[in-house]
Design brief:
Blueprint: E1 7-12, H1 16-28, E2 34-39, E3 52-56, E4 59-63, H2 75-86, E5 90-92, E6 97-101, E7 107-108, E8 116-118, H3 124-135, E9 138-141, E10 146-151, E11 161-165, E12 168-169, E13 176-179, H4 183-189, E14 205-216, E15 226-230, E16 234-239, E17 251-256, H5 258-263, H6 269-284, E18 298-313, E19 320-322, E20 327-329, H7 332-335, H8 339-357
Parallel strand pairs: 1-2, 1-13, 2-9, 6-15, 13-20
Antiparallel strand pairs: 3-4, 5-8, 6-7, 10-11, 11-12, 14-17, 14-18, 15-16, 16-17, 19-20
Helix pairs in contact: 1-3, 1-8
The chain binds flavin-adenine dinucleotide.
Length: 358
């Protein structure tokens, strides 16, 4: 097959859904028949399965500030994880888990299914998929934000999809595009193309969330590894020491509730950090009054704002596709709001496209 004859496909986004779509497609179709390019706007891979590395003095703090853990209920996700659990890239997480609230005593919580984490940061699952894809001739570009998309007349052009990355216009087009970015971001990107109105992209949306990352002074300790928080702007507290093998200093990740984030989205990072910190102190004081001095035990603080954290309105189908326009969409928001939903969505779209293009 000549270069002109083979199909070309672009995947926008190297989060878990985009990488799953590429993996499944490549398992079915060889590089001689289909070229696959992935473009990712960030420096790294994994999207919302992210791990921030912060240098504090001569030490490094690793904070999983997006997805905290994942479950594996489907056969396809279990099949991906099984060898990675054996090779210790992934492990079951069994934290000492509690519920904290202003009005009730702290109580221990149980999980009734296995919860997994990546031992060296939540982005290591994506890094693993990327290294496999690269050895299978998938081209992956980071720091490459797709700014604009144009579709030329498909009856005149074999490869009608053209993208613009930053100020740079692509010299060649693609036959197919898969977009794996959060639902609302698709609306901005595809506003100029005549999407099939039945895809209804404007109906799907995400809640925001704030993450507060704290570096702890040595010897500070908490009587739990993770906490679900009620009656507070905070929804979750996670102690890094229970999940990260590579940390040289301990830290906490605090997540706001989605509704509080939505109401307070206009506040700046300093204000967000102050309010979440004040509420963290308050909630820890329900365990012990000595946490009143929490501020003295913090070396560093940082806020991350997730504009599209958790699905508000899902699509309710595994993926969306417009075969006439050679355009597919995948992501957590198609099925639900979890890592596994994102993987399944990408995997199912990849398998569907493999039948069309294979
Ligand atoms: C704070 C928080 C906590 C969470 N906790 C959990 C949890 O405990 N358990 C769980 O299962 N799930 C959790 N989730 C949800 C989980 O992280 C997501 O469901 C999953 O990671 C989504 O994967 P995705 O591939 O669909 O999207 P994403 O991970 O968002 O991937 C999309 C990718 O597209 C890139 N991109 C966007 N626009 C462009 C563009 N224009 N050009 C190029 N690239 C672009 C982005 O940079 C990103 O890498 C959490 C999420 C957040 C934010």
């Amino acid at each position: 097959m000549t270069i002109e004859q083979k199909n070309s496909l672009l995947i926008i986004g190297a989060g878990i859904s985009g990488l799953a779509a590429a993996k499944t497609l490549r398992e079915h179709i060889s590089p001689n028949e289909l070229s696959i390019d992935i473009v990712e706007k960030s420096r790294g891979f994994g999207g919302r399965m992210s791990c921030r590395k912060t240098k504090i003095g001569s030490s490094l703090l690793f904070s999983d500030h997006g997805a905290q853990f994942f479950t594996a209920r489907t056969k396809e996700f279990q099949a991906l994880l099984t060898p990675l659990i054996k090779s210790e890239l992934i492990q079951e997480w069994r934290p000492k888990l509690v519920t904290l609230s202003a009005s009730k005593k702290v109580y221990k919580r149980e999980w009734f299914e296995k919860h997994y984490i990546c031992c060296n940061g939540m982005n290591s699952l994506a890094k693993h998929l990327v290294s496999e894809l690269k050895t299978n001739d998938v081209v992956i570009r980071t720091n490459a934000r797709v700014k604009n998309i144009t579709r030329l007349n498909a009856s005149l052009e074999k490869r009608p999809w053209y993208i613009q990355i930053g100020e740079e216009e692509q010299k060649h087009g693609y036959d197919w595009i898969i977009s794996s970015i959060p639902a609302q971001q698709n609306l901005q990107l595809f506003h100029q193309t005549q999407l099939n109105p039945n895809l209804n992209l404007q109906s799907f949306s995400h809640w925001p969330c704030f993450s507060l990352m704290l570096a702890l002074k040595p010897h500070f300790s908490l009587p739990f590894d993770a906490a679900v928080v009620k009656e507070s702007p905070i929804s979750w507290i996670s102690n890094n020491s229970s999940r990260q093998e590579n940390n040289s200093i301990d830290g906490l990740v605090i997540h706001s509730t989605n509704t509080w984030a939505e109401k307070n989205i206009e506040k700046n990072d300093e204000e967000i950090a102050d309010i979440l910190f004040e509420n963290l102190t308050k909630i820890l004081m329900t365990i012990d009054n000595s946490y009143e001095n929490l501020a003295k035990n913090i070396d560093h603080r940082d806020v991350h704002r997730w504009a599209h954290a958790k699905t508000k309105h899902k699509a309710g189908s595994d993926f969306l596709i417009n075969e006439n326009q050679s355009l597919g969409f995948c992501g957590d928001w198609c099925i639900g709001n979890r890592v596994e939903d994102a993987f399944v969505s990408g995997n199912k779209l990849g398998a569907h496209l493999a039948k069309i293009l294979g």
